[in-house]
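pasting for the record
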Amino acid sequence: MSKTDVAVVGAGPYGLSLAANLAERGVETALFGRPMAFWETIARAAPERYLKSYCFGADIPVPEAASFSDWSRDRGLESFEPCAMSDFVDYGLNVQRRFAPFVNQSQVRSIRIAGPRFLLQMESGEELLAERVVIATGLACFEQIPPELATIPTERLSHSNAIASYATYRGKRVAIVGGGQSALEAAALVHEAGGEAELIVRERFIRWMSRLPRERNLFRRLRSPISGLGSGPKAWVLTNMPGACRLLPDGPRTDFLRRHLPPEGAWWLRPRVEGFVSTRLATVVRGAAPVGTEVALALSTDGGPATESRYDSVIAATGFCPDVDRLPFLSRELRDRVGRIDRAPRLDKHFQSSVSGLYFVGPASAASFGPLFRFVVGAYHTTATLVGCLAEKSRKAA
């Protein structure tokens, strides 16, 4: 049975950054997962998919400078916004080949406690003992489906993140539930694939972001600074003071996490939606039921009585909810020992859970650290903090 000091589970931006920097510090590291798998699935669903963030907010921190902006500029691609999702995937794969060529693409089937260590079993049949484990699986497994939609057969219902191809919606009437970027993008892509899209939005209006020019005078830069998390003073503070949210008590921090960045659409998406997609505002789904080959949704507008509308398919663009119990590869014993904030893991200042040696990064850490860590830009603080901690532990154990 092979052994390692640190096992990183997940080869997306956070996992690649951590593994590359740990290896550079001489820490024995194993990295598992198909590189950029989550992002590649999204990019392959349709070619017209773009990042909502600025290009420089999607850097993967590695030992040498390898920014997404520079990588894109060198290839004659968009280097500010909007940046194609497929370009980001290619950038991530380039980072992996350069800085983490040791990735093992076997999927981790289970992780359980084995004395003072962790035993990882792969789908390939391999087994590995690790002193410490970092869970860096991003948003995978955390898709949120409202209970009102739970009765819809799986062949008629998809989370916006799990769509393999929008071409399957050609000629179909599709309801998209949600009012944020994912919902608006899904509606545009259904329409562009030849389907009839209808947005069902809880709010009374759709929020659209404004386009910021690349070149701005000093007053505009001071009034609304641009950072990796977006524009404005709040985004700047969250980006440049990444540990500040952790100082808040659980209640105010989780409340801020829920309220920060309300559902909104990118400026470049607006002309692809308005005038092309039917929209029901101030409308909620009260229930759903299959009717033959269709789905009947009970829809209530402005709190009025529910009326029935029928669709061929439903897309739930209803976000994600980090939940330790939804990580199937963690043994029940291990999951039961992880302390929680709501359903997310409770983490110390080094991203360690209540189980010594078990760490969580990325969106799973947002309940403890704030909204910055739901995005790629949070990898800077995570990598700087966790790599130093793990390297020191490794040095002391040597």
